[in-house]
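Holo prediction — 3-phosphoglyceric acid.
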Amino acid sequence: MNEKVKDFLTIDDFDLDGKTVLFRADINSVVIDGQVQMKERIVENAKTIQKLLDKKAKVVILAHQGRAGQADFMHLEQHAQLLRNFMDLKYIDDIMGPSARAAIKGLDRGEVLLLDNVRMLAEETLSKTPEEHSQSLFVKSLAPLADIYINDAFSVAHRSHASVVGFPTVLDAGIGRLMERELIALEKAAYLIKSPCVYILGGVKPEEVFDIINVTLERKKVESILTTGALGTLFLYASGTIELGEEQKEDEHFMQNLEQAKRFLEKGKDIIKYPEDVAVAIDGKRREIPVAQLKPNQVAYDIGAKTGEEYSERIRNARTVIMKGPAGLYEDKAFAKGTHDIFEAISDSEAYSLLGGGHTSAAISDVGIDRKSMSNAHVSLAGGAFLRYFVDKHLPGIEVLKNRSFKKF
Ligand code: 3PG
């Protein structure tokens, strides 16, 4: 790595030989029909873990999958199996009980152990300060067995959770390779934004990007916000291009979003762009229509060709591009064109591009774009944390790792 991230200790700053390292990874992955998918988060975390093993550390991985109560909330056995494609790894379905502690104590230099989903512990996700989390049973049970805490999970840095902020409060702590890369790239884009700057915002939940639209319009550092997906459709209603149907009028959540979108248009009508044509499903097939023909409550699954061209032109002429979320239902080949065209324009553009959001990195390969062609782009593996960073770079999991010196405790 040529650039060095300021204010943090990295794995190069520690003598790891024989040391027990608590390594916070984010291997939270897409689960389809109960099967955890092998995606970049697993591949990239494996690389940092290998570095730690090369330095003869005893590595204990702390990680989560899903959220309690949701379908993808599960034990980490399958993740262990996927990580075994890259290294020998032990797995134990315990987090801080006697078996987990015995397994940690039994590790040899150059060995790695994955503990079970830390979110199985209720205290992991309690809303608490780093100090308070450091007093949890979880932290008190495992911290005494470890020498160093390394966080490589930029994508959970916006959560003030025990495994993110509690351990670094009581242990020497630094950042992993993936976190280094994310911080360098975000710093570059967030503070060296060059004009023309283009945001491309899509995805299925418009409210997820309201904060970023707000801040972007306030800071006046953007030439265009190109909207796609459900956000694009929301602006079509907000601008009066599509009439509201009865169903929307009765949907309280939709109406709140609509009011917000109208306020954004009042502030940034020349900046916010929305589709002029879209693709809908007719008899299961893609059909492109001008937006004026979109009926109330009809779902647009992709942007249309004209919109794709207009957006691509802006992207090709930009010097900074920030993208969150695919342009449509890219998982279905019939509706992947808009997302493909936008990625292609990013590849062609000389702009520095930063791409993030839950499905964005997976979408690049799924729509058939070669990542190598995006030489000026950083693809963040983070979803929520990526957006939060643009709104306020003081994420709890980052702040707690800043300006550390050794042997503080
Ligand atoms: C993510 O997938 O964005 C991270 O793993 C964080 O997950 P969370 O939103 O459930 O905290």
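READOUT: The first strand starts at residue 20 and ends at 24.
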